[in-house]
Amino acid sequence: MKRLLLILSLALGLGAGAVRADVAPEVLKGLASEDFDAKQGAVAVLAEVGDADAARLLKALSDDAVAVAGDRLVIVAGEQVLDAANGKLLKPAPASPDSISLNNSLRQQVDGALAALRLLSADKAERLAAAKALLADMGDGAALLPLFDKALKQEQDGEIKPILVQLQAQASLASSDAAARLQAVQTLGQSASPAVKALLLPLIEKQGDTFAEPDEKVRLAAQTAIKAIDGRLVWSDTAGQIFTGISLGSILLLAALGLAITYGVMGVINMAHGELLMVGAYSAYAMQALFRSRFPDFVDYYVVAAVPVAFFVAAAVGMLMERTVIRHLYGRPLETLLATWGLSLVLIQAARLLFGAQNVEVANPAWMSGGVQLAENLSLPWNRLVIVAFSGFVLLVVWLLMNKTRLGMFVRAVTQNRPMAGCVGVPTARIDTLAFGIGSGIAGLGGVALSQIANVGPDMGQGYIVDSFMVVVLGGVGQLAGAVWAALGLGVVTKFLEGWAGAVIAKILVLVFIIIFIQKRPQGLFALKGRFVD
Amino acid sequence: MRTPVSVKLVAGLGPRGWLAVAAVFVAAWVLVPLAHLMLPEGHPLHISTYAITLIGKILCYAVVAVAMDLIWGFGGILSLGHGLFFALGGYSFGMYLMRQIGRDGSYGADIPDFMVFLDWKELPWYWSGTDSFLWCLLLAVAVPGVIAWIFGYFAFRSRIKGVYFSIITQAMTYAAMLFFFRNETGFGGNNGFTDFKRILGYSITAPETRVVLFGLSVTLLLGTLILGKALIASKFGRVLTAIRDAENRVMFIGYNPLHYKLFIWTVSAMLCGLAGALYVPQVGIINPSEMSVANSIEIAIWVAVGGRGTLVGPIFGAGIVNLSKTWFTTSFPEYWLFFLGLLFILVTLYLPEGVAGLWAKIKARRAEKAALAAGRAEAAAVPAAPRTPATPESKLPNGTAAKGA
Fold first, then answer.
1. Which residues, given as ranges, of chain B have pLDDT below 70?
2. A469: in domain
3. FRET partner for A417 with CA separation of 20 to 30 A, picked from A407, B145, B156, B268?
């Protein structure tokens, strides 16, 4: 009540004395008062007046520089003491100024008022920034409403104006006038922001037996508005889910591409494939450490250096595995499965001894952090975008390698008919080793990508082995296109199911789906070429 | 004429086999209890609680290994899902043990502690009847059996074999593990079941209870062995082995492999379930990590180390691997995975028939040497005989000589 009176009296005073530049004495008295309500009222008036004096005083309040000295209010600026009413230097400085205190809600109000004042700034960029800041956090909107009205009247810019309209609507939601609320709700209904939806939701909720919003027309309008916003949100939500699905799919693809090659060419079930991903990820970690100690200026580019390193390290490990173990088990797939599982255990333990059992920290380079904001609720992180692009690049390289090079031709020849390829002079044993090396190297590349978004630890590969087999099994053996479709499809489907049923159930559903799918089309996916009979 | 099953059972093992079975049975039910309960702690022949629990645990593993051998060694189907059947059996029986806790849990409620923690007021429907010992025992066999039957029916009907079958069983286990890790599933989430107090009213930690559980484990193992022998010796076993070696030819002759595979697969799963039900009261805990991919593959290595297709071999395989695991994880924990990994690699590379195969090889070589020595003695005894121009080895068939070299 006190506050209302104050505002009223001041509004009268303002209308009468537009010539007077000084801050009204009633306001100063309100600020100096011990009563926080009175202070709040005074700040609201300052926000409404919004001239240079008011702005200076608000700034000082926010900086805790306003003090009471005797019977006047002053602003303490270092050694100098200014008159709070008009900013004039006081000489001699009054003795022992007693600084006035703000509580949290008051401070919020002051900050909001300051931001709102910036809406009136001459600089367009500053106005835009202020409008956006207020949109994110307005504080006590009702107090700022007159300022929004004023700013809206002045504003000419096409970009700032809609934000101001929304701000005004948000602020008037708390208005006591039902018509104003109705209009505000209708204005807000045109937005596509989840924040606005959150603002409107309380209006249609019941508090006890009565609605929070007394007017039925407003409630109905709020309902329509929420529906309209939901309609707009669905689009960006779906887009976001598809993107995370593609992102997951691209990771699955990187994990499975190498497996598609090693499996497709040699029929080798490599259970250590996940550990080759781990080798790649630790290569990235090692490169990061190297760059940090040796080339601190280029530390942002360690990822680029890690790509070839990871490829060659993983390829070397893979070729060593092929030469020492897998080679002796050709034609015995179940034994190969067990032996490669043994290899994976050895690799995991080796990583534990070399790098410790704990996860290591691999940081995103600066250029991969942050994201692209496409809509209010749709932001694409750079690291995910880079990985999608990177998997596309790897896919291209693999395709070129398999289809356009002599080595790729040999690999395909061995896949199709090993004895015949040998007869015409293809060194099949060497091709096996090289193909295994390539497959392993690609797993290493996948590991670099993984290091940017997932934990890097000795066990990291184990989680991907089932998934990558599923991709290969689903997509068909030795077919790049199959692997691509299966990986992206699995990724998108998994993400949609996750949104619907939660992560674990989604995963179980996908596995069950694959098991059923294999029942339906085992031959189509695993048909051995030629008339093979055991 | 058909031979009665009982006669087949007796014939399957032979007199020496039955003697061994009887000896082990008596040892387990008489000697071990005496050594554990009657002899004082310091006595050199005293068997400690630790040893009883450890051996009892390994016996349960051995049952799983024999069950795995039935399907892998004789059916040629490598399952990476046996850990699931084992754990399902364990969970089924664990439900009974949880109910036996009664109000002695830390919350003193009628329902298990983890349900109190989840703020559940009553038992979910699938827990009904779990206060009955027999019902839970039935569940421990039936749940793995039914799941295996359904899964196997669809997989074998579509003629999924070899590595693909292995991979989808792995996917099945993995999915089940994720499912059991959820708290909402109603099986204790990642803590699983533990803190058991009693079984059939007897304290679960009492030495007498342990001895009985131990004896039951030995009995189950012997029963599994006898059942396995009988199955393998029967016509069913012959067809199964034939399917393993050349499925298409068996089909062309007119057999449907589906029934044979499905039967042995389901039996194997049920045996695993029983083993799991005996395992849980002895070890005192069951949690979803029993269903991890790694555990199921480890079962395969027990069989591979012991020797596939030998039935007795896998028992030794399970023993060797698990005793080394106990030894390594207490003495050199950081080298256990190296050892296990190398075991996987070396056994598949150099010991395809496992320890049993090695034993058979050594025995064969001894017999060879004995035969050679006898031959020489004979040659020496008859000086008039014409000198054989070739070296003694060349008398042997080529293959054997090469193996001996």
1. 1-12, 381-405
2. no
3. B156
